[in-house]
Amino acid sequence: MSTPPTHSNDVSKTGAERPADRVVSEIDALESHEKALQSPSNSPITPRFTSAHDAFWSGVRDARGAPAMVLFAGMVGFGAMGRTNGFDLWFTTATSFLMFALPGQIVMLEMILVGASSLTIALATTLTATRFVTMTATLFPMLHERDRNKALYAKVHLLAMTAWAVSLKEFQTIEPKHRLSYFVGLGILCWLISVPGTIVGFLIAGSVPMPITLGLIFINPLFFLLTFTEIKVSGYRLAILLGSIAGPICYVLDRDTSLLTAGLIGGTLAYWIDRRWIRRYDRKVSS
């Protein structure tokens, strides 16, 4: 990845005025991204928080709005789904507390209903969780070096689509040393709100029409997509567009594997187009 020019007239500009900052934000390589974030010449970040405590509660405040409400609605739909299919309150709620991964929770319930073996259920839910690998890989290099320790194994449980999308957007305006505190505040409220959401959904099951129940579940991924489009990275938006086009086509060909296939095709094409044309254009502009 090319380095932004360091002429005096460029140094005086803010990050929003330099085209090369977009290249940095796309994480061309984790090492290059990490260096760019820590470089004073490429970090026009105004201090946003005075302490880790301040960053933590700011994350909580940001979560109590749309992120928590959307996640709560999704868990209400899941709780109703659990009761409708014959699962008890404790089991349904425990999946939200221990797994905190709505797609994986739904897959697990469906696999149990069809009588799948424990090994098959474990493999299926693990496959739905592979998205967390890329989420972790993109957020990890944005954290301060002192925060990259074994404690992250516990804090990664707070990672979800909602918290990840919001963090990826907000981290651009937060100093690296306060990013983990902000993420924990954001993620912990989203995690804790999932439990009462599941309980409420379980208790009101039967009084809400099934189409509305299923609609509540899909609010979460919809919010994720809308949040993700706010990130000014062409490659990400292109992946969403190509995946949306490939989705219906793959569903017609084979509905059982359509979601996985559409994601693979859309993401791969977007990555290839981004590397071959978009980033080359940005390098020419920044040189």
How do the strands and helices of this protein lay out in sequence?
Elements: H1 8-11, H2 20-25, H3 30-38, H4 52-63, H5 66-84, H6 89-98, H7 102-113, H8 118-128, H9 131-139, H10 152-155, H11 161-170, H12 176-204, H13 210-217, H14 219-228, H15 234-253, H16 258-286
Distance between the termini: 11 Å
Which radius of gyration do the C-alpha atoms yield? Answer: 21 Å
Major sheet characteristics:
none
Number of strands: 0
Structural class of the helix and strand makeup?
mainly alpha
Short précis:
Helix content is 70%, strand content 0%. By secondary structure, the protein is mostly helical.
Describe the structure.
By secondary structure, this protein is mainly alpha-helical. The chain is 70% helix and 0% strand. It has 16 helices and no strands. It has helices at residues 8-11, 20-25, 30-38, 52-63, 66-84, 89-98, 102-113, 118-128, 131-139, 152-155, 161-170, 176-204, 210-217, 219-228, 234-253, 258-286. Helix 6 packs antiparallel against helix 12 (176-204) and helix 15 packs antiparallel against helix 16. The longest helix is centred in the middle third of the chain and has 29 residues, at 176-204. The chain is globular. It starts with 7 loop residues before the first helix and ends with a helix.
